[in-house]
Amino acid sequence: MRGLACVLLSALAAAAMPIVGNGCSGSSEPPRVAATVVVTPPSGSLTAVGATLQFTALVRDQHGDALLNPTVEWSSSNAAAVRVSSSGLAAAAANGTAQVTATSGSASQGVSVTVAQAAAQLVLVSGDAQGGTLGQALAQPLVVQVNDANAFPVQGVNVSFSVTAGGGTVGTPSAPTSANGQAQSTWTLGPTAAAQTAMASVSALPGATMTFNAGPYVAGQSYFGRNQYVEYIFGDLPVIVTAPHGGGLRPAEMPDRLVSDTLRDSNTQELARAIDTAFGVATGHHPHVVMCRVHRVKLDCNRELAVAAMGDPEAAQAWNEFHAFIAEAKAAVVREQGRGLLIDVHGHGHTLQRLELGYLLSGNQLGLPDSVLDQANWLDSVSVRSLGVTPGRRLSAILRGPSSLGDLLAGRGYPSVPSGPDPAPAGTPYFSGGYNTETHGSRTGGTVSAVQIESNYTGVRDTPGARAAFAGAFVGAVRSYLATWLGLVT
């Protein structure tokens, strides 16, 4: 109507006479501005992290007419829960609620968006295919993870655990998932030697179950932790061989450790396997062998947990599995033989090509005279304490006498310190023992003693032939050592 009035006035003016200042020529309408915004859909609900929902905004001017190609800005009141793009695409970031707002000029409208993860997947994390002792709890718990539709972990979902065959028991019949989406339970095997099974299920996911299998340990068979980061070869001899620094796996889920001591002890895992083979040839039986298969840059199984895993949960789980397998091996040795010997296998890069046997005594302490080391208080300092508690035994004889491990190895062509020929490092580089020797030896009690062997590379670890030759000599030395100091014939 406003346009039509001007047209009529102009026509009249042209027909009569000029009209000055008619108020129409040169006039314009007020600019169109955004007055209202309508967001569609009017609300949103997302059930998985990473799920998206597209919003659109209709902008009308002060006359109620839709604006074409208006400028619209999108924002979220809680970006930790819901993020929104410049085009109005909302994405779930975490459980929570946010107001997603579309703004055009001075007009805006917000809609509520809720993120509430829903269980969609049940995943087996670890604890399957274990070996164990009948009537005893398994070394590893049963662990499952509940995920949403985009494979992100869901917290607070109840998981049920139950035994389905074998007559065993679970420690936690029902457990809620934690922040990482995982729930777990211990499993104690039943009395039957047949295969045993347990199951995990989630009521929110009908038909979704995970089955765990276990049975009695079998000598010479390998058992693994999560993702095969740790391997345990079950044995039937009173000997435990550990190799914490020989792994080569670099899983992306574990961050690199920001420390200086991350070098791999090359071929020590292969050396441990060669020792297992040599024992089988010599005795028809197997030692217990525990190996960390992860590179030391990711995990150090010969350090306390805080330094070993640097706070990473996946690395910490592998560390716990490594030491749980050692505990399992020690329990089996004590149960079957009453006592035993643990050898922690390492590799050094020192110039002197010799074996360095660590008993938790420093190089300077090994330099003390036999008469001093044979005093009673020194026995409490070593990782082979249980070998010296028998009356009449001298610590110096255990460390470097004719029947010491160093002498037995030196006599087979592998120079060792300490030993009779080389009683102390005498100022040269020497590793005296680490976390495993201290933790799993007999210094603070128990009947399983421990020795750390830092092996030279050339002639011991460098080739398959060298490893096989050393393993044969090592087995002969250890069998003699067991007979002399533990009274065990293997």
Keywords:
single chain, alpha+beta, Immunoglobulin-like, Aminopeptidase, 3 domains, eight-stranded mixed beta sheet, five-stranded mixed beta sheet, 27 strands, elongated, disordered N terminus
Write structural notes for this entry.
The radius of gyration is 36 Å and the shape is elongated. It has 11 helices and 27 strands. It folds into 3 domains: about 35-115, Immunoglobulin-like (Sandwich), CATH 2.60.40.1080; about 120-215, Immunoglobulins (Immunoglobulin-like), CATH 2.60.40.10; about 215-490, 3-Layer(aba) Sandwich (Aminopeptidase). The chain has about 500 residues and is α+β, with helices and mostly antiparallel strands. Residues about 1-25 have low confidence and may be disordered. Helix 2 (about 270-285) packs across helix 11 (about 465-485). It has an 8-stranded mixed β-sheet, sandwiched between helices. The chain starts with a helix and ends with a helix. Helices cover about 25% and strands about 30% of the residues.
